[in-house]
Amino acid sequence: MSQLIKTKNEFINKRRALPGRVGLVPTMGNLHQGHLDLVKQAIEDCDHVLVTIFVNPKQFGPNEDFANYPRTLESDIEKINSLEGSDKVIVFAPENNEEIYPENFQTEIRVKDITDVLCGKYRPGHFDGVTTVVYQLFSISMPHFAYFGQKDYQQFKVIEKMSQDLLLPLGLVMVPTTRDEDGLALSSRNNYLSADERKQALTLPNSLRELAQNLVDNKDYILLKDEIKKKLENDSHWQYLEVYDADTFKEVHTESKTYLLAGAYQLGKARLIDNVLIGV
Ligand code: AMP
Fold it and tell me: What CATH number did the domain enclosing 97 receive?
């Protein structure tokens, strides 16, 4: 069974007393199998695993779903406790926002350039909120490894850049995207979908898969750009659908090792994202 801690000071003291390899899994809760796969990986790799559950207000825009974001701590803990090795896990779920952002908190961590495109372009300030909270979680957790999902690939690369630039002494692990049987990436925001929207949501993973397959078959980047353009013209649910060099988030070029195909698809209240990486 895991342990639950609700204050930062208690968490810091607990962490200081932990021997061996420590893994950190930051989440906003409402855990699904995608989150649990990160925790499982951390349990496998580490002696102790810190799971944080905090709906971070700084990463939500003024018109986004911060107020309605599902908060399900009790069932989250049950899910963690159902994992083999859950006795290695300490859950830190701050009891209020002041635990993380005390009055007069003045600092913001901002990674430039790669936050200007894809989700960053449509969610101004989002990644600054992510890096600010993740930096703080790194500080109090002092992890040897931190685990993030490929579903949020841009988030992973932004955190990687922050960690490299600020010489943070930890390793980052990217865990593959966990999907429903039909291919839709698991997400807490899938809860917002009606039955019809849930069906239509498959356009996102299906399109990414189809485009990736065409690129592998034809090795034709211009054709890929044309296919993307057509999809965007024919379906207004797309917020973006883009192909970039997966390391620089710039146009692909002859030296590109990996292409990132990424999309955001808006269905009612639910904004869904997904991506595939294609080695070239
Ligand atoms: P969130 O609670 O949405 O902030 O996500 C916490 C962590 O879980 C992030 O590193 C996400 O990338 C990861 N995650 C969320 N959904 C999935 C998924 N379907 N597969 C793998 N990782 C995921």
Answer: 3.40.50.620
